[in-house]
Structures are given as C-alpha cells and as structure tokens.
Amino acid sequence: MDRHKIVAVRPSILAVVIVAVAGVAGALAFAALANEREFDRLIAEGDAAVVTERPFQAIEAYSGAIARKPDSMLAHFKRGSVYQAQNELEAAMRDFRTATNIDPSSLRALESLGDVNVALGRNERAIERYETFITLDDRNPRVLYKLGLARYRARRSNDATAVLKQALAIDPGMGEAHYVLGLVQRDLDQGPAARKSLEEATRRSPASQTSAREALADVYLQDGDYSKAINQLEALAALEPGRADRQVAVGLAQARAGRGDAAVVTLGRALERFPDAPQVYAALGHVWLIDAERRDDRVALNKAIGALQHAAGRADAASETYAELGRALMLAGDHQAAERALRQSVARLPLTPDAYLRLAEITGRDGRIEDARDALLKYATLVGDEKPMATVATQIADYSVRLGEPALAVRWLDRAIDEAGPSAALQLKLADAAFRAGDVARAHQVIDEGLASEPGNLQLERLKRRLPR
Questions:
Q1: pTM for the full model?
Q2: In this structure, are residues 266 and 254 in contact, taking their beta carbons and an 8 Å threshold?
Q3: What is the mean pLDDT of residues 381-409?
Q4: What's the per-residue H, E or C state across 248-290?
Q5: What is the SS3 assignment for 33?
Q6: Domain boundaries, the chain
Q7: Distance from C-alpha of 312 to C-alpha of 302, rounded to nearest angstrom
Q8: Which one is the CATH code of 388-469: 1.10.10.10, 3.30.750.24, 2.60.120.10, 1.25.40.10?
Q9: 350-360: per-residue pLDDT in tens?
C-alpha cells in the first residue's frame, strides 16, 4: 500500500472510533436518563402508596428506587419513615442512619434517627442526634423540646432545663415543653417553678393535659395544698369517668386532707359504679383503717378489715393491700391472721417495705428474735437512705447482741449514731457491743467520747471499770 493510501485510511479509522465513542456515550446517557426516570417513577409510586396507606407497596417501591440509586438520601429516608410508621424500628434506624451517612446535614434524617432511638429507649444516642441537629439549627423549638425530653429521660435534669427554656422562648405556647420542664423542676426540688410550669401545661396543651394534671396534683399534695390537688384529681375523674383509679385517687386525697367522711362518700359512689374493682375496696379499707386508728373506733376497724379482705381475695391483690390488712388485723389483736397477711405481702412484687416492720413487731413480741432481726434487715435493705433508720438500726443491733453477733451490732450502732448523732445511750450500747466483739480499744474510745460529752454518766463509768486495760 502506497503512502497516499495509508494516509487515506487513518482518517477513516479515527472517524469510526469517534462514532463508536459517541455511540457508547449516547447509550450511557440514555441508560442514565432511563435509570433516573425509573427512579423518579418508583419514588412517586412509593409516595402514592403512602398516601393511600399501602405500606408494603411503599416499601417495595422505595426499595426499588434504592436499587437504582443506592446513594440516594431521599429514598433511604422515605423508606425509613414507612418502617417507622409500621413500628419496625430497627429497620427504620438502618435507613435513617444510612441517610445521615449520605447527607450528614439532613435535618429530617437526624431528627428521625433521634426519634427512633427514643422509641427504642436509647436516650443517650437520641441525645447525640438531637444535639447534632441543634448545631445545624438551634431555632427549632420542636427538636429543642425533644432534646430536653431525652435528657430528662436519661436522668440529666440539669442539662434538660436550658434547652426546654430555649424551646419555650421560641414557642411559648408549646404545652408539652411546659409539662416536661415542670417535671424537671419537680425533680430538682424547685416546687414553685414546677407548679407554675405544670399549671401552664394544663392550660396550653390538651394533648398532655391528663399527664400534666397528674403531675400537678402530685406537686400540690407534696406541698400540702390539698384543695388544689383534689380539684385536679376531680378534673381527671371527669375527663376519664370510666376509670376506677381516678375516683380512688380523689378519695385517697380527701382522706389525706383529713376529710374522711368525704372520702368514704367518694369511694362509696365509686364502689356502686365499679363493684368488681379491687382497688376501690382497698382504698375504702385504707380510709376506714385511718379512721379506726385516729378515733380508736372498733366499728370502723371491722369495716376496714372487711373491705381489705375483699380486696385481698383477688389473685392479683397488691402487696400493699395485704400489708394494710395485716396492720388492721394487728390492731384487732389477731396476730396469727396478721402474720399470714404480712407474709403474703412480702411475697408479692412490688412489695411494701413497711410489711417487714410489722412482721418484726409480731415475731419480736413472740420471742422469735432471729425472725424479727431478719425482717428488720430486709426492711433496711429495701428502704436504704430514703427514710430515717436510727430506731430500726438500734433494734437490729439489740437483736444481734442477743443472738451472739456483736460485730454486726457494732455496724448497725455506728449507722444509728451517724444518723441520729451521739448520745450516752447509743454510745453505751456501742461500747458494750465492741467489747463483746473483742475490740476493747474501740470500746474504750467510745466510752471516753461519751464521758467527754456527758461527764459523770454512771453507766458509762461502770462499763469502763469492767473493761480490761
């Protein structure tokens, strides 16, 4: 082939290559356009299925869209929203997490991921997501409220206060934020502020009015403002007339306010309306028992026993019902029946700690001091530091000395002195227990401390003379 022919062929080959490349590019562009159109069609199909409440078809359509465009934040978010609405929370979380990985600035995905974590009880993770949202947009009162709620549920009350107030500064009419702020303030012992917030919640938010009224009534009761508490409880009873426990709450609040006759009337009416409700009988028994103790009234006591026995006859009777029955039977002098009721009380969860106190009283009176000591130990374990323990600790120590366990007595007398402060009587017991346990040096130390506070105390001086040097 001569030189002119070679030169003529080369442009022909180049033209073929250019045409081929253009054809491939055109095919790719056409395929991309077709893929985009199919993606859009599937998204629209999913949206239509959501509108017509066909979740399974929506999930299928969005899944098809994701297959077309795996890096689509929108498709993952939409499918996650359907899973969330169907309460398939783990699947929703996977899609929302993928959506935020694709687009970390997507506020919708961040908020939804926080919401799903809240629904799963993962409050700390929810807090992280809401906080990320707030760094991008700190003027969204809804998410500020959600962050405050998640912090409250995570027992981070101090941290919850600021964001809840921030939400309310933007939207003062957000009743649910007033409600949660009231709960936070109540837990932080900010009584007046809690009252104000909860009162505002009952005015602002019909959706949270029931829970806000419950919390407000609780705050009023703690403050001893019984009239306002009863008003809130009566409003709750009117809002939910089919619930026996609402009537019971009113009756018990009336009893707590010293309005025993009104409480009996309220609970009597509740009994007419809910004749099979054990909680009404239990509440009526409680009210009559209080009246019997206050007035030493045998008639009221018999009524209390009858009502409590009726409530305790149910298989699902609460520990508190049996504890009150045991208390009533003790007052009536039937200690055997009282002990049976109290043992049933401590066998049920959640149990009533005071039942152990009454068991200790019965068994200690009968000379079963080991049973009495063990009952007091269980009571102390359950109560912890929630109630004064000096008297119980002293009784445990006395029983322990009688049972030949002075070292245990020393521990409980130390606790009694830590709580009640030193006194000659407690120091005498502690020194004697330490001596019996073989700790003579501690016994001398305690006696010297006692004599420094109360010089000339004959019992301490007598014990000191008995101790070896």
A1: 0.75
A2: yes
A3: 95
A4: HHHHHHHHHCCCHHHHHHHHHHHHHHCCCCHHHHHHHHHHHHH
A5: helix
A6: 388-469
A7: 15
A8: 1.25.40.10
A9: 999 999 999 99
